[in-house]
Write a structure and sequence with these properties.
single chain; 368 residues; six-stranded mixed sheet; five-stranded parallel sheet; 2 helices; 31 strands; 36% strand
Length: 368
């Protein structure tokens, strides 16, 4: 039986991992992506079936991003699957007349028939030609132009990929850079910051976080959720005019949030025997603890204090912090405990007393 169970477990471990697909919208076009490696955080434009595209674009051009996001997860786009944009151009088009696709520099492979159609222009940013199956596999149906950096024209013409195009054109891509002068030197947990990097091209800058548990980014807004070190990267993937910009990184040390103790209680008249509920609060909302400098005078249980004898005593309110908040500066309150007041009650009637009588006096003190 043990051998049978081990065989079943081995067979289950050998089963291929199911592919994970997700949608991400960039520059107005929603594309479908397939995760290649969860460990390496890589993905590709989802492959279509033979003769059927996987994508359903709505415009005339598509800009594929460097990074595709699935919720809080971010994946580098390294491939374009086979048949991805098939039959989206010319007389083949079913939904649109796609004529331009911008391929980012991160792409290292392009599948067969990925752009199968008429007269499509592919602006290819990778400095090394992406791999292509070659042989009898088609990339385009008719036409097909690669526009590449002028420095790598020969490399593309000699590649399997370039040989499938009607023309490989070299141009000098307009350059752009990112400017980011923001000061993130003092950041604490809970801060919400608008990131202000700009590209000289005027195109939108995208941001990614090296640790979304510490810094979570939505658009150009970042929320710092936990203390620690995190790197934020600003990038601009380019378009059909501009080459991608060199990304800029900014390292941020997120500190615990500060807190303070507020304690407005008035202990101006306290006498022996008084029991008081202490009412200090921490701005963090965390529980405040108390300590007495002399438990013979003031004894504390939780937030209750009982004054047991006369004298001066100091009560300290503290909050030590947690994973999110720094410890608060303790607040001290000095209390002078007075002796309790007492009175004498004597209601005895001694209005008629004769010589020689002995009377027991019955006055009492309220103190006992």
């Amino acid at each position: 039986m043990k051998h049978i169970l081990l065989s079943i477990m081995g067979a289950m471990m050998a089963l291929p991992t199911l592919a994970v697909d997700f949608e991400y919208t960039y520059e107005g076009e929603k594309l479908i992506y397939t995760v290649i490696s969860e460990t390496a955080k890589t993905c590709e434009i989802k492959a279509g079936a033979t003769g059927a595209p996987s994508q359903n674009v709505t415009g005339y051009s598509v800009v594929i991003p460097l990074i595709a996001k699935n919720g809080t997860k971010e994946y580098s786009v390294i491939g374009i699957g086979a048949f991805a944009f098939m039959k989206m151009t010319g007389s083949f088009a079913t939904n649109t007349y796609l004529n331009t696709v911008v391929v980012p520099e991160t792409v290292t492979s392009i599948g067969q028939a990925a752009f199968y159609g008429e007269n499509i222009t592919v602006i290819c940013e990778p400095k090394t030609p992406p791999t292509f199956p070659g042989g009898s596999n088609d990339l385009f149906k008719y036409g097909g132009i690669f526009v590449v950096n002028e420095n790598v024209v020969d490399a593309y013409k000699a590649s399997n990929l370039g040989k499938k195009a009607k023309t490989v054109v070299g141009i000098k891509f307009p350059t752009q850079s990112i400017q980011w002068n923001q000061n993130l030197s003092y950041i604490t947990v809970g801060d919400d910051i608008t990131l202000t990097a700009t590209a000289t091209s005027g195109l939108n800058v995208a941001y990614t976080s090296s640790d979304t548990n510490i810094a979570e980014i939505t658009g150009n807004k970042v929320t710092f959720k936990a203390p620690g070190d995190v790197t934020i990267t600003a990038s601009q993937a380019g378009n059909n005019i501009y080459y991608n910009a060199e990304p800029i990184t900014m390292s941020v040390t997120v500190k615990k949030a500060p807190q303070s103790i507020e304690w407005d209680q008035n202990p101006s008249y306290i006498s022996v025997g008084d029991e008081v509920t202490l009412a200090a609060t921490a701005t963090s909302g965390l529980e405040v603890t108390y300590e007495s400098s002399d438990t013979d005078i003031a004894e504390i249980d939780g937030d209750k204090v009982t004054f047991k004898s006369a004298g001066d005593v100091t009560i300290t309110a503290s909050q030590v912090g947690d994973d999110t908040y720094e410890s608060a500066e303790p607040v001290l309150m000095t209390v002078t405990v007075k002796k309790s007041q007492q009175s004498i009650e004597w209601n005895q009637n001694l209005s008629y007393i004769s010589v020689g009588e002995e009377v027991t006096l019955i006055a009492t003190a309220t103190s006992g």
